[in-house]
Amino acid sequence: MHTKNQRWNWMFVPEIAEGKCKQCGECVDICPADVLVVDNNETVVANPADCLGCESCVSVCPEEAITVKEV
């Protein structure tokens, strides 16, 4: 049984396939936790610990360049 204040022992981390990503910024715009940024024409995972695991970035990516891994 889980208690109300129990913390989970996993986190989610987005991974970007550099060869597929076209830096369109769709993932950056949709992310509710501001995990991704486009910096110097490269999409990067700037705040991986903030990822909610919602996979909004995965669903919006036109190049299918993003996966979210549970770690």
UniProtKB/TrEMBL annotation:
PROSITE patterns: 4FE4S_FER_1, 4FE4S_FER_2
InterPro entries reported in the protein's UniProt record: 4Fe4S_Fe-S-bd, 4Fe4S_Fe_S_CS, Fe-S_Ferredoxin
Keywords in alphabetical order: 4Fe-4S, Iron, Iron-sulfur, Metal-binding
Domain 4Fe-4S ferredoxin-type, residue spans: 12-41, 42-71
Gene3D superfamilies referenced in this protein's UniProt entry, alphabetically: 3.30.70.20
UniProt GO molecular function: 4 iron, 4 sulfur cluster binding; metal ion binding
Superkingdom in the source lineage: Bacteria
Protein name according to UniProt: 4Fe-4S ferredoxin-type domain-containing protein
